[in-house]
Amino acid sequence: MRCAITYVPPPDDPLSLRAAAWLGRDAYSGAPCLADVEGLTAADHSFLTVLPRRAGFHATLKPPFVLETGHSVHELERRLGEYAHQLQPARVALEIARIASFFAFVPTAPVPDIVRLAANIVAEFDGFRRPLERDEIERRSAARLNAAQLANLEKWGSPFVFDQYHFHMTLTGPVDRSERDHVARVLERYFGRQPVEIVLDRLVLAVQDEAHEPFRIHSTHRFALPSALRIAS
Hints:
Number of domains: 1
Order of helices and strands: EHHEHEEHHHEHEEEE
Number of helices: 7
Number of strands: 9
CATH class: Alpha Beta
CATH topology: Cyclic Phosphodiesterase, Chain: A
Helix content: 25-40%
Strand content: 15-25%
CATH architecture: Alpha-Beta Complex
Distance between the termini: 34 Å
Largest sheet: 5 strands, mixed
Low-confidence stretches: none
């Protein structure tokens, strides 16, 4: 079993509903729900979203990991609930941008508080992670990783943690260079030009029972509710 600690907006949030129809899969129910999108054929739309569809609309905080022998998903769930209850919600404004070859919602301004939160979660729950085998590290090292990313892969099981982490909510798989301007316009029409706001107020435990299966939401853990929401910084 693989697990991941993520953020997913509430199931009735307008952004959740819109993003589920875009990706073609509801993150909570797992039900298919691909929408008709202006500017894309059904086949092109399905191909464009096939990779992020497996995980559903989310932001990763601790990347997927195999659960270590001796630990259970129920133990992880309990620990995550205790941890989440110590946190306070934060508002984050998001806009659509390209990251390398794919598109995602990203913060409109730097969010060091969330980067620190993700780093703390990676470290706090690393005891639940089975260390990567040497062949897994070598296979993943074949990608174009910098020195910091290689060190993260060795120690933490993922290149993109700590100072290499960027909060984002993926909308597409890789897009050919010649198609990027068109896809950007399609996304702008579909989601709108104005930034959207989320309230980061929960941690979500997602699990993957088998390697070929999509991730499913196992449990949701709300933060403590303060008298007023803070703005993420």
